[in-house]
Design brief:
Two copies of one chain form a homodimer.
Chain A lengths: L1 H16 L4 H7 L2 E3 L4 E3 L4 E5 L5 E7 L13 H14 L13 E4 L13 H13 L12 H5 L3 H6 L1 H13 L4 H14 L15 H12 L3 E9 H12 L6 E13 L2 E12 L5 H9 L6 E4 L5 H8 L6 E8 L6 E2 L10 H9 L2 E4 H4 L9
Parallel strand pairs in A: 5-6, 5-9, 6-7, 9-10, 10-12
Antiparallel strand pairs in A: 1-2, 3-4, 7-8, 10-11
Helix pairs in contact in A: 4-7, 8-10, 11-12
Chain lengths: ~375, ~375
């Protein structure tokens, strides 16, 4: 500890004396905006300096004293830190340049709670209820009847076709701007049926820490989800710090046209892309154009994304969140229907993917109530 | 001038004394990498300081003393600078936060030369020649016969159907990684038939300066082109400083499958998306999820992109590059076939879009020969 401190002090003095005031600066100004020149500091790393200015051994990292405080000190946590350390260490054989530090995250069940039903389905049901007065026929017609009566079994009785019909009726017909407003209004008022908290509070605190930790280390974090791209974008920047252009998802087609004297994009009741399973690497290639070096998922819908990520050249990292915590959240895997995790559990040990047990690896699940 | 200089000096002294060493720093270290903490300086702005630390009137900007040196001092150049100044000035009614500073650029004819034929068509022709030994039937079959004989008229004789057929035969069938290698190999060796320079040297120097100027002012610059997304990504980072994830274009479908013991994405001979005309706002919405505040194009294929950009709320900017320089490049507009600029010329004055005359507004067209 003394050694560490004196090295730290030596580094600072060395820095100041030789006019390398990065260390001091980093601590003095958290966010200093100066016209087209914004100084933002998210991590302060103090390294032992050789020829003053050449970072050598990392000695101390302030914001990252423990970058993952909601994780128990298990092998899972260590594997994340070890990977990030080795790919960000200049000169290391595993070093990855900042531009190639791409990490992709599934959303439902990986970043937020997806049980008892995917959140977007609750949105669809509420939207069908709101539209019902204009569709008297829905009272007798499935899957709409089921939605109006909160009869989930009836909704699922018609399989994928029924679900698709429900999604199109509830997600199409508006302009993109109108839809964004609908989502924003809904997400700020709707509550989870069991936890009675807004869905955006039922995000996983340990995963929020992973997102922030990666970004502080130069990663670009993306969501790659089977959920609707325009259902996710309106709230993800606030909830996860992920901007719209880094949110990839399933989509319906849109059409450019003039309405009321201005151009709009109208959402059509036609599937454009299903961003699930083998669709995920396809979408990653189309939207990002680079292969990620880290991928995080929780179900077999994420299998190909993690496979694509971890079979690239160089250091690679795959992680599966295993829902083992029936007390604090939900416990499910091989028989979970839409959220099934089966092949992933079998293959992870062979492929070196980390399987996180929510029960054992996570100190907390959701953020503290506000 | 004296006033300016003494204000500058006062600012620096004030900055140093009160431990705001940004100004000094900015000039001392061009790019200082310090473990997960990289300091990159692209612009140094010196403002008159009120309460030391609060930027007020901009006095001097070093890197940007003239941010657009290859532009003549005309109204076009001034309109770009005026717009960037007002949207980046904190407290201005037109101020736009960094996250929303999105600028989109067409590629062919806007960032690089598209005459006498779009560059990608030369690639397609060369690729058809390379594949010809495996397709003896092409010798007698259009549009392949035309491609093999450099008979451009014959290629175009079958209209869009013929072109599409040529593109699919030359662009599909490989994996995405193989295709990237093909493009990289070709783009580093192929030369423009008239200028006898690599195509990546036939980019517009004045536009490179606009790209750099915008990025130095917090903009995210995107390419939104009718060209193939995977034809453009391999070289645009080097040529324009635009990373793959900010390149949007037309695409063919890909399929995820295993080949030779590893997963690959195979390029299928099937159109996925045509990123032209009304497709451009559709793609912008899908890929970026935000409406740009600046858009740059050169043909009627860019009309809807510029329209969508300039009809949003707040300060907006649209610009059309008009090819008026038959001596240094090519002169074409209303009758230019694929590259036709007709509606754009009629509508620009009514809509406040800037029409740049290459002949009058640009000091130089291409970068100096290396």
């Amino acid at each position: 500890m003394t050694t560490l401190r004196s090295s730290f002090l030596a580094s600072v003095i060395c820095g100041v004396v030789l006019l390398c005031p990065m260390l001091v600066l980093g601590q003095s100004f958290k966010s200093f905006s100066f016209k087209s020149f914004t100084f933002k500091n998210r991590t302060v790393a103090v390294d032992q300096l050789g020829d003053c200015g050449t970072p050598q051994k990392p000695q101390w990292t302030s914001a990252l004293a423990d970058p993952l405080p909601s994780w128990n000190d298990t092998a899972s946590k260590q594997s994340i830190i070890d990977f990030v350390t080795k790919v960000t260490k200049e000169g290391s054989p595993d070093f990855v340049p900042v531009a190639e530090r791409i990490a992709t995250f599934d959303n439902d069940g990986t970043l937020w709670c997806e049980m008892p039903l995917p959140v977007q389905l609750y949105f669809a049901i509420d939207r069908v209820k709101a539209l019902a007065p204009m569709h008297p026929e829905w009272k007798e017609q499935q899957p709409f009847k089921g939605a109006l009566e909160d009869d989930i079994k009836a909704i699922f009785a018609n399989g994928e076709r029924g679900l698709l019909e429900l999604m199109m009726a509830s997600h199409a017909g508006t302009t993109t701007e109108e839809f964004e407003t609908l989502v924003k209004d809904w997400i700020t008022t709707a509550k989870h049926p069991q936890f009675q908290r807004p869905y955006t509070e039922l995000v996983y605190q340990p995963m929020l820490e992973v997102l922030a930790y990666l970004r502080a280390n130069g990663f670009k974090t993306y969501v790659v989800s089977g959920g609707g791209i325009e259902f996710m974008r309106p709230w993800m920047e606030k909830a996860y710090g992920i901007p719209p252009e880094q949110v990839i998802g399933s989509s319906i087609k849109t059409k450019y046209e003039w309405r009321d004297g201005k151009p709009v994009l109208v959402r059509l009741p036609e599937l454009d892309f299903n961003d699930d399973k083998a669709g995920k690497p396809v979408a990653i290639n189309k939207f990002i154009g680079r292969r990620p070096i880290m991928a995080f998922g929780n179900s077999d819908g994420d299998f190909e994304m993690i496979e694509w990520t971890t079979t690239g050249k160089g250091a690679r990292f795959g992680l599966i969140v295993h829902h083992t915590d029936g007390e604090r959240e939900y416990a499910y895997d091989r028989k979970a229907g839409l959220a099934r995790l089966d092949k992933g559990l079998d293959e992870s040990p062979k492929r070196g993917w980390i399987v996180v047990s929510m029960k054992d690896d996570w100190k907390t699940v959701f953020p503290t109530k506000k």
